[in-house]
Amino acid sequence: MKFSMLAVPLMALAIVPAASATTTDYDIFQGTTLVATAAVTTGGTCAAGSICVTLTGVGGNQIRTGGPTVGFSGTSLSGLGISLYSGSGTIAAGTCGGMAGQTLCFDVTGKGANGTFSSVSLVLSGATNLTTITGVGIHIVGPACGVTTNGTFNTCSLDRYNSPSEFTPGAPPLASGVFSFRSDVY
Fold first, then answer.
1. 46, 85, 101, 118: which has the fewest Cβ within 10 Å?
2. For 6-16, how does the pLDDT look when each residue is reduced to its tens digit (9 = 90+)?
3. pTM for the complete prediction?
């Protein structure tokens, strides 16, 4: 009898669901070539009041830190700050540089600022609603950006929008639900 009375409360604890996570994946293209992804997550292992972001280079492209590194567009972004950053250097709110479509950008400065990473993670604090982020911009280096005259890869910044009304100048009209991307090489 003692065992069954103890087992009931333990079983009740075992079926309590864990906090669920909501992730929006942004595929970032240079033309038609996928060059990076951005996973934007709330809930789950991402602390309450935070948005967890993982940027990952694809196809030999890497996340380039130094100067404008990552940017976001959306609503109610003024309260966002960074509470965790996995790259090198010091990250803080700054200019958007070539990420013209973004309104809140974070720049990397200081020792280690000019690094390249296959993946960078950061945690934005001060927001809980994933829908406040509607676009992501990143600074990359790799084959998608072209090659310099001395044979090294250029760097470029790319914007990913969540609105089909925003498109690359000169691109054909988009079908509903299709997204386009902006690229500025610098």
1. 118
2. 444 444 444 44
3. 0.75
